[in-house]
Amino acid sequence: MRHRIAGRKLGRTTSHRVAMLRNMVTSLFEHEKLKTTDAKAKELRPLAEKLIHLGKRGDLHARRLVSAVVRKAEVVRKLFDTISPRYQSRNGGYIRIIKTGPRPGDGALVSIVELISEGKEVKAIKKHKAGRRRPKKKGAEEAKPAAPASSP
């Protein structure tokens, strides 16, 4: 039983796993989208969300904590200047994982990890809900033939 065992080892040593996750989170913030396996995506999400939360704080200590994980200085700047301000009114859920299916070569389940774009989401949902309800046509009920009366 796996009681009180958090996280996945992903078939790697600790140092390899930490380095891989640091590279992945750096690439995610640099390109704002990433294609990887499901297990890696699920391990990446908490780390990326914590770093975005630190970016929302915006102080020097938060910047140094993020710099200890993210590999490139320009990506740290991008996180603090452009990515984190997007989510000031949001309390979490900055990352979306979309499952795309098995990989042709080895059958591993693949996902796309992306940052949620705040403005586009809200508009798309509102349009979809508004267009969903349509008034019933008045002539539709009259056009239906009456059911034949059954004889006893």
Structure characteristics:
3 strands; elongated; three-stranded antiparallel sheet; alpha+beta; 6 helices; 152 residues; 50s Ribosomal Protein L17, Chain: A
> What share of residues is helical?
40-55%
- What is the radius of gyration computed over CA atoms, rounded to a whole number of angstroms? 24 Å
CATH class term: Alpha Beta
N/C terminus separation: 68 Å
Number of helices, where a helix is a run of at least 4 consecutive DSSP H or I residues: 6
Strand content: 5-15%
Question: How many domains in all?
Answer: 1
CATH superfamily: Ribosomal protein L17
What is the strand arrangement across the widest sheet? 1-3-2
The biggest beta sheet, please?
3 strands, antiparallel
CATH architectural category: Alpha-Beta Complex
Low-confidence spans: pLDDT under 50, at least 5 residues? 121-125
Number of strands: 3
Mass-distribution shape: elongated
Mean pLDDT: 87
User: Order of SSEs, N→C?
Assistant: HEHHHEEHH
CATH topology: 50s Ribosomal Protein L17, Chain: A
Give the assembly state of these chains.
Answer: single chain
Structural class category: alpha+beta
